[in-house]
Structure formats: structure tokens, C-alpha cells
């Protein structure tokens, strides 16, 4: 996988370099191109697809990257360690540049909510972007966890990016039977047994699983095509609900509007210069 700079207005675009040049091998990372959201987020164009893009998309969002081309020679984004941290590291090593174009934002104008009291996701108007994510598993080593991510008050790099994909040990067999998770291992997935994580070294945070759900939501919502200004709250949600919320929001013209900002403190790390593309 290679990340390449792109001109203003490009957005995030995936290119399958294992496909013939001149063919339909590029896919815009926008919600209308989502083709599957079962256990990961996959986008496609009717000919080719790319799976498991959510961690890389979260890294782009957290680093303030608006424009980039992602070149891949396979259908799946590398799992790395199951978090967004390796992608953040690589983006920072490559460097970013400010582009001569205003940064377009999506401002939420009215509440949008999906689900019921037992499982839901919502977004409401706010002065800046933030997420509250709650999980609640009938499992002795998971149970109820809650995390709030506000980019102005906490660091994406240290608080959210390092949280890894997780699953329950009891779910491994069914996940493999579905054809998913074939590249999964204890190197890139936190497997939770009855007494806790099976991974050597345990958890990176006591609430790592809730943090990872927030990471997934952060990445999925970046498929809006622009950063969102609004407060997201979710309980027992997943990729499917994340994308359903995005669709419900953007397909209601009264629920949002475009707005521009001259700096990125609304969505991203505080006290940084505006950035838009990989150098």
C-alpha cells in the first residue's frame, strides 16, 4: 500500500493497482460507495472493491488529511496491528502540506437518530466534532464501557488511534465460518476470553474496546467526504449503523449544510496549522 498526494478537491481515493491501467480501478471514499458494512467497511465501484478501510480513514480524519490517493495491490487495507496508530505514524513520517483551498466542513443543523433505547446512534448540532461511544456486552471481561472523544480536549494519536480491533473468543469460529477474519491473529486483534484478553501484554487501555468502537465510528463518518461538525452518540452500534446514520444525515437537505473554516481546530488536533494533503 502507498499513500500519494492529491490536488485540492480530490478527496480520499483508493486505487487498485493490481487491476489493468485504464480500467475502473479507482473508488472514491464516500458513503455512497459503501458496498458492505458487516464486520468492516468496504467500498466499491461495481467492478472492484476495497475492504477494511475504516482504520486508515480514521487516521486521515485524525491527521486532518482531506486529499490523498491510496494505492493498493489487493482488496484489503493492511491490518497492521489492528489500530490506526501505524497509519498515523506513516502519515506523520511522510509529512503533510497545506493546500491553497478552503477546508469545507459539514455542519449538522438538526438531530438525526436511528435505533431504539437498546441500540442506537445519533448526531446532534454542536460547536465542534465529538463522539460518545458506549458498549454493553453480556460478557464478564467486557460488560459496559463508555468513552468520549473530543479532539479539542484529547489527542487522537494517544487516546483513540492506538485502540485495536477486538472480538470475543466465542465469536472466532463463526467469524471464520463467514469468510471474514482470515488474516486475523493475536498480532492484530484483541481476543477477549472469559477471564480477559488472550493477547500477550493485555490491553492498551482498560476501556480499549469502547475506544476502538469510537475509532471505527470516526473513520466511518469520514466517508461523508468532509469533516463533520456535530456530536455523535452511540450505544451498541457498529459499521452498519454508522453508515445508516451518515446516509440519513446527508440525504436530508434540511439536516446539514456546508461551511468553511480557516483552521482545523474544529476537527483534528488542537493548535496545529491547517493541513490538507500528504506531502
Automatic annotation (TrEMBL):
The keyword Hydrolase applies. It catalyses: a UDP-3-O-[(3R)-3-hydroxyacyl]-N-acetyl-alpha-D-glucosamine + H2O = a UDP-3-O-[(3R)-3-hydroxyacyl]-alpha-D-glucosamine + acetate. It comes from the Eukaryota. Its EC number is 3.5.1.108. The keyword Zinc applies. InterPro entries: Ribosomal_Su5_D2-typ_SF, UDP-acyl_GlcNac_deAcase, UDP-acyl_GlcNac_deAcase_C, UDP-acyl_N-AcGlcN_deAcase_N. It is an enzyme of class 3 (hydrolase). One of its GO terms (biological process) is lipid X metabolic process. Its cofactor is Zn(2+). GO terms for cellular component: membrane. SUPFAM superfamilies: Ribosomal protein S5 domain 2-like. One of its GO terms (molecular function) is UDP-3-O-acyl-N-acetylglucosamine deacetylase activity. Keywords: Hydrolase, Lipid A biosynthesis, Lipid biosynthesis, Lipid metabolism, Metal-binding, Zinc. Pathway: Glycolipid biosynthesis; lipid IV(A) biosynthesis; lipid IV(A) from (3R)-3-hydroxytetradecanoyl-[acyl-carrier-protein] and UDP-N-acetyl-alpha-D-glucosamine: step 2/6. Involved in the biosynthesis of lipid A, a phosphorylated glycolipid that in bacteria anchors the lipopolysaccharide to the outer membrane of the cell. Lipid A-like molecules in plants may serve as structural components of the outer membranes of mitochondria and/or chloroplasts, or may be involved in signal transduction or plant defense responses. Belongs to the LpxC family. This is UDP-3-O-acyl-N-acetylglucosamine deacetylase. It comes from Geodia barretti.
Amino acid at each position: 500500500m502507498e499513500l500519494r498526494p492529491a490536488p485540492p478537491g480530490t478527496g480520499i481515493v483508493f486505487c487498485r493497482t493490481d487491476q489493468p491501467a485504464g480500467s475502473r480501478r479507482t473508488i472514491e471514499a464516500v458513503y455512497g460507495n459503501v458496498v458492505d458494512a458487516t464486520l468492516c467497511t468496504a467500498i466499491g465501484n461495481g467492478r472492484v472493491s476495497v475492504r477494511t478501510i475504516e482504520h486508515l480513514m480514521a487516521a486521515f480524519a485524525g491527521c486532518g488529511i482531506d486529499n490523498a490517493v491510496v494505492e493498493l495491490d489487493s482488496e484489503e487495507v493492511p491490518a497492521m496491528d489492528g489500530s490506526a496508530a501505524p497509519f498515523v505514524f506513516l502519515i506523520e513520517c511522510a509529512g503533510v502540506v497545506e493546500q491553497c483551498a478552503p477546508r469545507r466542513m459539514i455542519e449538522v443543523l438538526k438531530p438525526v437518530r436511528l435505533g431504539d433505547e437498546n441500540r442506537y446512534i445519533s448526531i446532534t448540532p454542536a460547536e465542534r466534532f465529538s463522539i460518545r461511544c458506549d458498549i454493553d456486552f453480556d460478557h464478564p471481561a467486557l460488560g459496559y464501557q463508555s468513552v468520549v472523544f473530543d479532539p479539542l480536549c484529547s489527542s487522537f494519536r494517544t487516546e483513540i488511534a492506538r485502540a485495536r480491533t477486538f472480538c470475543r473468543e466465542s465469536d472466532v469460529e463463526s467469524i471464520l465460518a463467514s469468510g471474514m477474519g482470515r488474516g486475523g491473529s493475536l498480532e492484530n486483534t484483541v481476543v477477549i476470553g472469559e477471564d480477559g484478553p488472550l493477547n500477550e501484554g493485555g490491553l492498551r487501555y482498560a476501556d480499549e474496546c469502547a475506544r476502538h468502537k469510537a475509532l471505527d465510528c470516526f473513520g466511518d463518518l469520514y466517508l461523508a467526504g468532509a469533516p463533520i461538525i456535530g456530536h455523535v452518540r452511540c450505544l451498541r452500534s457498529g459499521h452498519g449503523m454508522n453508515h445508516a446514520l451518515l446516509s440519513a444525515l446527508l440525504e436530508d437537505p434540511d439536516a446539514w449544510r456546508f461551511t468553511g473554516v480557516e483552521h482545523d481546530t474544529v476537527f483534528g488536533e488542537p493548535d496545529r496549522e491547517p493541513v490538507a494533503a500528504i506531502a
